[in-house]
Structure formats: C-alpha cells, structure tokens
Amino acid sequence: MVKEPDREIALNCSGKCPAPDTINRQNPSIQGDLEEESSSIDQEPRSCGDNSVWAHVSPLLSAACSDLNEGELIHGDNFNLFAAMSALEIMDPKMDSGMVSTFYSIDEAIESGFAPVPISSDRTVDVQCIIDIMDHLLACEATWHMGHSLAQTVFSCIYVLRPERTSSHALLHSFCRVIRATCRALVSVVSDARTNEEEDLFTMTYGLPFNGDEDGKGLLLLNAVEETICRQLRACKATSSKRRVFEELEPLQTNPQLEEGFCKALLCRIRFRKHFLHALNCMRRPQGRGLELARKHIAYCIAELESVLSSVEFLSLETVENGKNEMEESTTGSGRHPIGFDPNLNKRLSAPTPPRAIKLLSWKKAIDYYVKLLHNLDQICAFKLEPDLDAVLQFVVQFQKSRPDLVARAHLQLLLVQDGKLYGRDTFLTICARSLALDVTKNHGLHLNEYILQLNQLMINLLKILCANTPWQRRKLGKILNDWSIFNVQMGITVGHMMQQVTTPRTPKNGDKSALILNHIYGWLEEQIHWVALRFLVLGFDLKLYSPSEYCMVYWYMYIILWKLAEKAHFRVLIIVHTEERKAKEEDYSRDMAREDRISLWVLLLKCQTSLAQGLTVMIAALRNEGMCSKSQGPFNTENEKFVQHFGLLQKASLPKYDAYESFSESTCHARLDYLPVYECFRDAQKMAKEIKVGYANDPDKLAEVVGLEQVAEHNIIAVNLLCQDRCLKVSFEFIHHPHFATAVLQEKWLWSQMGLVSQEPALFATSIKENILSGKKDATIDDVVEAAKASDAHTFISQLPNVYE
C-alpha cells in the first residue's frame, strides 16, 4: 500500500500539474479533497534550466494516498507512479527524488561543518569521537565485504574521502590513509582472483578517489602515532620518581583519570589495523613466501581484537544509558553515533543500479566477522605447499565447509594458482606424474604436448572454480564436466593410437616413455572427472536442492559415480605400487610408503561411501515401493523430468555412458525391505569405517567424517530392522551425523511404544494409578489400563482402593 510521503516531492510536470480527476479514478471519494488541495500547489514554479518547470505536488500526493486501498497506485494523464519507480530503477537522473540527502555534495557537507578538523576543541571529546570513527569504519568495512558498495560503506566517511583535510591531525590522518590502503589491497586481490559474484564483495569504485599516492605512507605515519601513544601510556602509568622523563610529553587528552583507558583503546585499534594490512600484503608474496610472517600478523590481529572488545566497558562509561537492544545494534563500542558519515554523499558513484538502502553490521558482529576471516586466512597460511594434488583438493573441500567469505577464498585461489602453476612453481604435468609415481624428467618434450597443455588449463580452471562460492561453484562444475568429457574422448583416441605403435612390450631403459606416461595420465584424468561429478552431486545437499522424495535417485547416481571413482583410484594405487617396486629393483630407491597408505585409505573411504550410497538407494526404493514414503511424483514434473533437471549436465558428459534413468528405474522398481543386500551394504560400510578410523587417527577432520559415516551405517541398520517389524511405520531422513548421507529417523511415539521399563524397586509417580499405567502408552483407553493391571495381577488390589484407578 502506498503511504503518505514523509518529505516534499518534486515532479517534472512541464509547467502543468495532473488534473485532480485523473489522479486516482478508482477513488472518487477523494475528489473533493483533491480540489481543495489543488489550490495549494499553484505556487510559483521553479525553472530548472532545460525548458522544464518543477512544481511541488506533495499536498496533491498526500491527498491521493490518503484513501488508496492495498494494491492501488497513483495514476494520472501525465504522471504514473509505476513509470516513476521504473525510471528510478534505471537511474534516470530526472527521477532522483526517491533518495533523501542532507547534503548534495561533499564540499557542501564540509562547508557546513559536518566533518570538522579537529573534531572538537575539547581534546577528550576529540579522542572519543576518533575512536567512534574507527569502530564505525570497522563495521562499514565488514558490511562492504558482505556485498555492499564502497561508496555507501567505507567511503561514506568524509575523512576517508578527503584525507588531505586531516593532515594536521596525525592520528585521524594516518588511520584514514591505512583504511584506504587496506581497501585497495582487498580490491586488488579480489579483482585478480575474479571469484566475486553479485552476492560477494563489491569491487567497483565508480569514480571514488581510490588511488591516492599518499596512502602508501599511511603505515609509516601510523607507526609514528602508535609510538607516541605508547609513550603517553607509559607516562600516565609512570611512578612519581619517573615522571620527569615524560614532563615534555603532551598527554593524549586533558582528563588524567581517562588517559590510560583512551590510550589502550586507541592502541588496540591502531595495531589491529596495522597488522591486518601487513597480513594482506604478506599473503600476496609470490610462491607463498610470506605465509609464515602473515600468520604472525594474523595472531596479533586476533589478540588485538580481544583487546578491542574488552575496551567496551571503559568506552561506554561516559555514554548516556541506552537500551540493551540499541547497544547490540550500535556500530561503535561506545554506543554513540559517529561524526562525518553520510551514505548518500556518493549516491552517483554507488553502482549503475538503483541505490539501495543498506543496514550496517553492528560493531560486535563486525568483530565476529573479522575473527572468522582471520581464522580462515590462518588456515590458508598453515597449509603445507606440497606438490600433491590430492592433498590440495581435499584441503579446498575441507576449507569450503567453514563457508569462508570472498576475501579468504580469493587469497586461497591466488596462492594455489600463480603464473599457470601450482603455488607458482610446480607444473601440472609434474603434479600428475607425482600422483602416479612417474618420472617425467627424461621426457623433456612432454610438457609441450598439446594434451598436457590443455590438461594444465583444465586443472587451473578447476582450482579457480573450487574457490568460488557454493552456488557458483556447483553451476560451473556442471558446465566444465562437458569440457573434461570432450577432452577425455579426444585424448583417449590419441593415446590409443600411440599405444598401438609401441612395438615392444617394454621401452628401452633410457628411451622415450611418453606414450606410457600419457596412457597413465589418461586413466588419472578419468578419476578426476568422476571426482568433479561427485563434488557436483554433494554440493546439491549443501545447497538443499534435493527434496526427500528425490533422495533415491540422488543416492543411486552417487553410487554409480562413487563406484567408478573407487575403481579408478584403486587402479592408480596398482600403478603406483608397480612403479615403486620396479624403481626399487632397478636402482637405489626409497619407496614413499606414506603416500601409498594415504591413497589406499582414500580408496577404502570411497568404498565405504559407495556401500552407504547403495544401501540408502535400496532402502529408500524399498520404502517407496511398499508405500512407506512418498514417491518423487509431483503435480508439475514427472520423475523422469526431475531426473533430467538434476543430472542433465552429468548425462551430457556421458556419466554414466548408458541411459541413466532407465537403469535407475530397473534397478529400484523391485526393491523390498527384506532384500538381504540392504543389510550387507550398511554392515560393509560400518566395517570399513572402523578400519579407516585407525588410519585417520591423526587427522581430526577426516576422523570426524569417518565417525559420521559409521554412525549413519549403524543407525540405518537399526532402522531397517525396526521397519521390517512394522510395515505401517512412517520414516523420515535427516542429516544428523553426516551432511551428505542421510539417517533414517523413525517416529518417536512408535519407538516409545516398543519399549518398557521394569524397575528393581516398586516406585510410583506422584499422580493417580491410571496416570502411572498410562505413562507406558499415552493414548490408551481405560479398558487398556484395566487389562494391563489384570495382566500384572494388580487389578484386584487396585479395585479395593478408595479411588480405585483415580
């Protein structure tokens, strides 16, 4: 419903106002009001210099809105509210009246004293206001990371927009310079990574004064300010005998009792800002050379944020008592409103889309955001940069489980892919060869092979996609599967011809083994394709794209992909073992047993997941066939259509190479609960999970995943046994123990009805005898209660009581 405007509205009506009888033809009851109000708008029009005349129509619109019903819009011969809103949406400068602005330019705001320098002649107030500005900028920066524009967040601060004005104020000037440098560093890393999408951090600056040459000196200036404040802190804490050393040092502000608190509050904010910029710069060093130093700066940042939080008690002492909710939503630690911020100052620079009203994160939520960001960055810095693709893929998948924001994901991508190499130093040919325990040093021309070059580009694209946000990642994985499939077919044909040309079963010791190496890489390529397909499927669970009625087809497809992936991974283990044994015979060579064990565990984990997926497929299909859970038939889409919607991209990539839906239908249509493989699948998965736990004892993340798989298998075994006893029972599937493998959950009420408690002592609850008996079955009738009492030989005794069962 259109409400009465809360401010004066200007309408370009070319010298004429809309006739009252055409403003709202659906509301004749307001005609009289419109006629009375029309006289109030016949005031002197204002010329805007382009042969147009502007007139105030606020009273007219107020009258028009007063009797509007829900769903109705103001409409006239020369005015249409829908068209006006559309004009605003396309940023028509003539329809800018929807944006309320206190000032229409930065210069106007400065001239009006909106952002004074110094902020106050009272130095205590000045320091308080600067701390509020620091806190508000932290909230603005975190909000920017969440997807809003720089113009409406960080650069809504006039002090950041015009840092040259603050040159006489060392503290404010240096801090604003470092803020600008930090924003530039973040825009650089996100732009270089190119992983940002609409819902991620907004990198466009749209004419903002972003590239100040003086910003690079901000850290030097801030270090000098920090040193001065440290001396001021030592001075206020010094004993009377040592104060002579600090006699010439001017205090931070005029109130001696507040000196220490203000010094500490400023220092923790300055140090956080300084170490955060250092950490970002160190992480951008090539080949991960600055990661160790970056971890130190990140640890300092986390410690300083704790100090920032602890300063709230001191800062809020001088604040007028606010409500609890208002303090929770405040963008400053003190609860005061900061000086010098106006989000509408840069409305023309926000974006080429309608400027939207934004809600800044609260100060506490901003700190929580930065703590999570810093922990994610620390995870990246702690990652061992080994040339092992399996380890890289597992790390990226595990890292994405924490739902990192764009800043962390962009840094991860730039670390993994530099100059077309892994970490900027290892080619993907070397990585593939290491995964297969092959030696490619004697085949110097192999790195120029066209298939190796294409594979290199495919791997680069894959790593970049895996660093994207979850929806974008799944969308892109589905599309690149087709590219991988086409490349796989082309490479398979070429490798087949090359292997046919090999005349001897074994090439000379120092001969060219390119054909054999390419053949092994071809098998490894098929393993990677199925890994990508599995990742595509499980992301559907993370995004909640599957309904319970579709779980059967999803787990069937997962079973097919997992089975093939386990087969290819097992084949790679055989290649590695054969190659290592041959090398050990031919020369003095030490086998990498740790790698063999790691890959063998990976294969066993895949087999465990395969058994679970197969068991869930048969179990859900049996429940569906026996009418114990709903089928995937809906009013709009058939089961076949849903199958194509979910797995069309996989089928396009020939995964599998046969008609998937026909095979799914045939393999599930005859499933029954008493079908023995259901039990065997879950039992096999449980047995393998127990074996895997020993191997992953030193890997907490993997161990937790395996424990979850074991619990899924164990609970589903129990569920199947109970379901076979009562075919009328309804069951649901929930992801209690594992995010991708469901656990069958039975009705709690039914389970309680199958249980009983016989105590060793004759104890009764403090209620009637009937209620005590009913505790075993709440919906039982009085006849059922009497029958239960007779069965326990208690009816005769109870009948002799004054109130009998009551």
TrEMBL record:
Q: What is its main location?
A: cytoplasm
Q: Where is the NAA35-like TPR repeats domain?
A: 380-744
Pfam families, per this entry? Mak10, TPR_NAA35
Q: What residues form the membrane-spanning segments?
A: none
Keyword Cell inner membrane present in the record's keywords: the answer is no
Q: Which residue ranges does the record annotate as region Disordered?
A: 1-29, 325-347
**Which InterPro entries does the record associate with it?**
NAA35-like_N (IPR057983), Naa35_N (IPR007244), P-loop_NTPase (IPR027417), TPR_NAA35 (IPR057982)
Question: Where does the UniProt annotation locate this protein?
Answer: Cytoplasm
Listed Gene3D superfamilies: P-loop containing nucleotide triphosphate hydrolases
Going by the UniProt record, its keywords in alphabetical order are: Cytoplasm
Question: Residues in domain NAA35-like N-terminal?
Answer: 70-210
Q: Does the keyword Lyase apply?
A: no
- SUPFAM superfamilies linked to this entry: P-loop containing nucleoside triphosphate hydrolases
Q: Which family does it belong to?
A: Belongs to the MAK10 family.
Record's protein name = N-alpha-acetyltransferase 35, NatC auxiliary subunit
Protein's organism: Brassica napus
